[in-house]
Amino acid sequence: MDATFELRGVRVPRLVYGTAWKEERTAALTRQALDAGLRGIDTANQRKHYVEAGVGEALAAAGLPREQLYLQTKFTYARGQDHRLPYDPSAPLPAQVEQSFASSLAHLGVTRLDGYVLHGPETGRGLTDGDWQVWRAMEARHAAGDVALLGVSNVTAEQVRALLAGARVAPAIVQNRCYARTDWDAEVRALCRAHGLAYQGFSLLTANRAVAEGPALAAIAARLGATAAQVVFAFALRVGMMPLTGTSSRVHLDQDLAALALADRLTADDVAAIERAEA
Ligand SMILES: NC(=O)c1ccc[n+]([C@@H]2O[C@H](COP(=O)([O-])OP(=O)(O)OC[C@H]3O[C@@H](n4cnc5c(N)ncnc54)[C@H](OP(=O)(O)O)[C@@H]3O)[C@@H](O)[C@H]2O)c1
What we know:
This protein is 43% helix and 17% strand.
């Protein structure tokens, strides 16, 4: 399988490096991922879980041409942040998006982003007036040419439908925690497929330990001479997802990248077996 694909005119890597929870190791681990060959980076302007400036440090040190990189970050509501906010929380939401976006560019040392994602809607159901204010502000950044693709994270199928119905700039990305027990987020993935959105799956290994360590995966892994983790990533790629990996290990980075080739070796029976593996 090719390492990249075209999404709304943008070259996007299928496998994306996630930079959450790395604290002072963010720069070194992001650099390690770039050195291993990953070209897609996911971060967030949410100091509680991410060090966006550390990603910027790694980008500067690696010195790769900007056009070879896919850089994606997020706007996070104040309730998802700690005291280290990238905006004035008393400012109206559109101004918060402006401030967060500008601060992301400064942290990353770039003049434009490839992807900009709403970290999560305000509530678990529907889209609030606040969500629309944020989305319109994101659309303004897109209209200005500061970001190529817009997306949303931690959403239900109903919320994606609402966004598709009301957006002026259609979302291009959904980023969700992907549980085997929801048939690997089948409803949201089907919606993404039908409307040409990329589905980015996270916690593929950590949210699905029983499946990843179960007999179906073990049998496929043994036959292919791969690890069970690689089979999970290969399956995700094969069914059209963009998997996120936040591994700290160089060996695992190489294994996760090798899942691209492994995806072509999964049979239709393998895919069906993984889809129905007991969660
Ligand atoms: N939008 C959101 O709200 C949200 C929420 C959570 C995460 N994310 C994004 O998704 C990224 C990934 O997060 P994640 O939740 O999927 O967890 P993760 O940080 O990628 O952790 C995955 C775990 O799997 C292990 N692993 C990775 N490759 C492996 C391999 N080939 N073999 C064996 N173990 C392997 C890692 O261990 P080693 O380090 O030892 O390899 C780690 O313990 C984050 O960094 C972030 O960018 C977004």
